[in-house]
Amino acid sequence: MHLNLHWACATAALALLMPTARAQEAVDIDRTAGLPPETPADIAEGALSGRPVSTLTDALRYAYWTSPALLAQRSTTQSSAWGVAQARAAYGPKLDYALTYGWTRDRFEIAKGVFLGRSGWTSTATAVLTQPLFSFGRSFANERGARAQAAYQQAVLQSAEQQALLDAADAFVGLRRTRTAVAIAADNLAALTRELTDNRARLAAHEVTATDIQQVETRVELGRVQLLAAQRDAGTAEAAFLRMIGTRPGDLAAPPPLQLPVADLEEAYAYAETHNPLIHAAQERERASRASVEAARAERRPRVDFQGSAALLPYSAGFSNYSDTLRQTEIKGVVTLSGPLFDSGERAARVHAAQAANDADWRLMDATLRENRAALAGAWNDWQAQTAAIDTLAKAVASAQNAYDGAVLQERAGMFTTLDVLQLARELLQARSAYNDGVAGAYLAKVQVLAGLGALDAAWLLPDGPRRDAQGDAWRVAGKADVPLVTDAVRALDGLVEGSAPPRSARDPAARTLIPAAELSRGEN
Prior knowledge:
525 residues, alpha+beta, Outer membrane efflux proteins (OEP), 2 domains, 4-stranded antiparallel beta sheet
């Protein structure tokens, strides 16, 4: 008996542990197959093994195919595309069934104080077919709203793709900048250390004082702190690299030059109006709320539906409906015209609420255009200024290097003091750091210009690589719920009430005003 008890306990424990083991196995499988099946094989293998990335092109490819935020947005977009299929399903028939089996007991008073009881088990089978014939624009407005919502999610997806590529470029260029900053700080510390060694030798020869040594020692310790800070920033940048790109960094090559689809800021404004995904998202959001107005108005109209039913029931004559001994069948077909008569103003209030919401979305189109133009102008001016400053900073670095090298020689000849050399070493450090920041800043500013234009996408940056066809996927999904002939016929009839819904233009008076690019000058005579 005790043996049986132990065996039962062991069996119960094993049963409890088996779901955990299976769950762990499922987790391992999910980790192995965590990327969508359309992911390129080299990207999937590299992400799984943590293969180092050395070029910006590869970094952008990893971000495009492995960014969790971007993958989540693609799934959200697919979900929205299925909403179109759901809306189009309203044009087709629906067939429902019901099967019942139950017991009934009744008592009938057939005379004063005399009751007759009947009871029994019965079953029924019913099928109901419903086909909308003409909803006076309800279904068409709902489909239009679903399509606008799907298009809105498409624009949001394009914006998410741009943001993923922007973050990847920022992480790549930022890591190159911080690694260069480490090298600059190390060079500065090495130069200060040499200066300290030379001054200690000169102190032994009574050419400098202890105060000079202390000044150099102070700068050396500060140089060590600067090197530690640069190494800290490089480590943080590597973590950001992994977060944005999805794999480890290698020896990063210089990023390739970027090309713009426009020549000046005025062309950039016009290009962004037709290509920027945030502007597209605002336009599609307005279309979706406009479709809500149409749907609210359609609720005030009648509708025509056909309903057919077939039923298998117990025979209902006399007392025979208390058993399945005798059966009867019933087939019905009904065309129904229905509509509201009086609702105390509820539907009118819905129309007004939808109109107000649509007006707000229309105004937000203007706000989005303003924001885009301001951001685009800022990025353009920043890119132009930082690009123009690179040559100036390069000259400053060369001059600072020559001045420092000359000061070191003249210090040994007694023409420069230790403080003079330390000051020139600081200026050299500042010039090299500014040049390093300027090169990275100019490149990232141009990336921001591409983002403002709406051209920071895989089609522009990775023209030869595979890409997701989100629009094609949405188009294929939209008709999944169609019923041949029926859907198109009912939709064409329903669309006669609503008509077309052309895109709306901006109402903002300031939309006609364009700010030119900033006038930049180096102050040269």
